[in-house]
Amino acid sequence: MERDILDVLEQVGYDGPLQEEETLVKACEGGLSSPEYVNLCMWFKSRLKPLCDLEESSTSGSGDTDGLQFEMSVMLKELECPYQGLVSGILQGRLQNKKDHLKLVLFLSSEVQAAQIVKSRLVEDKQHKDRNDLQAICGTLKLPEPREQEVVELFSGIEQKINTVLQELPKDHIGKPVQKNTLDSEQWERLEQINTVLSSQYECRQRLLIKRLDVTVQSFGWSDRAKERVDSMARAYQPKRHSLAQRSSVGMAHLLAAREDICNVVKTSSGSSRENTACAVNKILMGRVPDRGGRPSEIDAPLPEMPAWQKRQDGGFGGRGGGRGGGGSWGGGKGGWRGGSGVGGGVGWGHGGKRGRYQY
């Protein structure tokens, strides 16, 4: 493990004192109590912060062990460290052996290496996109492909060619641009940020619509008849499905190229729009369907849940009769339950309050 760590440290550009196996092992044995080990961890953090957009936090000194433990634990959580023992162990101060500290260094060095690779690929993709845009411009204007020439010379040739082409076109053929103001670098940067936010929202909604489309098409294959034609359905659907882009391709160039006619809103029911959206399904008319109701104005009011209130009647409540002998009733005053009399009459008992008596 020590040699692997040294190889990765060399690849990520580390030039500190821990470039030998002996010094690295000694620093890992000391852990956060070793100044060299703490400096190595802080070097990892300084490299990862701009690459991974880590949260800003105060840097603790080598003597503040508790602050270092908390700071390292927060960084590991942000990086989604798969070793849960490291995240909880370093916060609770349970990383005492050399192996755990070596594992921590290996993880952080690997994260720096991966972040540098991803960053370089993003830069290469942007350069490749710019190169493709220049090639497209030169191809449209019928200019030779851009070689290893100066940018000023290249753009001056493009500008001269555009002015020549514009003179050959009729007046007001292109139209007036929407963006007529001159913006500074700060304003262009803000526009780029706005476009980034709108593009992310567009991508989120586009993913949702594509997922709905996938689920809808998948539901068409649930019937027994459709199960026999799964392959033919896939051959017809997949090419069109993969042609749907999830990310927006709108950028600052589209803003500069936009003309005033972009503000004209065309209705979806207009003839020009229906030429591209009309299909045979639209010509199928649905027959008359039964009226299922459900309109609030036609629904009767519900019955009252509570009974109507009545005035209390004098004489109290009548009791339940016992057999054929009639029922008793609850008396007033000292009270008591008076049982009914007669054949099969109920047996009564009375309670006269605190000093009441029972009658059997």
How much of the sequence is in beta strands? under 5%
Helix content: 40-55%
Structural class: mainly alpha
Residue stretches low in confidence (pLDDT < 50, at least 5 long) are 318-360
Ends apart, CA distance between termini: 96 Å
Mean pLDDT: 77
Strand segment tally = 3
The coarse overall form would be extended
- The total count of helices amounts to 12
Structural commentary:
By secondary structure, the protein is mainly alpha-helical. Among the domains are: 2-119; 185-262. The protein is built from 12 helices and 3 strands; from the N terminus they run ααααααααααααβββ. The protein has a 3-stranded antiparallel β-sheet, with no helix packed on it. β2 (327-330) and β3 form a beta hairpin. It starts with a helix and ends in a 22-residue tail after the last strand.
Can you give me a brief rundown of this structure?
The chain is mostly helical and about 350 residues long.
Summarize the topology.
Layout: H1 2-11, H2 21-30, H3 35-52, H4 65-78, H5 84-92, H6 98-140, H7 151-168, H8 185-220, H9 224-227, H10 230-242, H11 252-257, H12 271-277, E1 318-321, E2 327-330, E3 337-338
Antiparallel strand pairs: 1-2, 2-3
Helix pairs in contact: 1-6, 2-6, 3-6, 4-5
InterPro entries: FAM98 (IPR018797)
Family: Belongs to the FAM98 family.
Biased composition (Gly residues): 315-351
List keywords for this structure.
mainly alpha, disordered C terminus, 360 residues
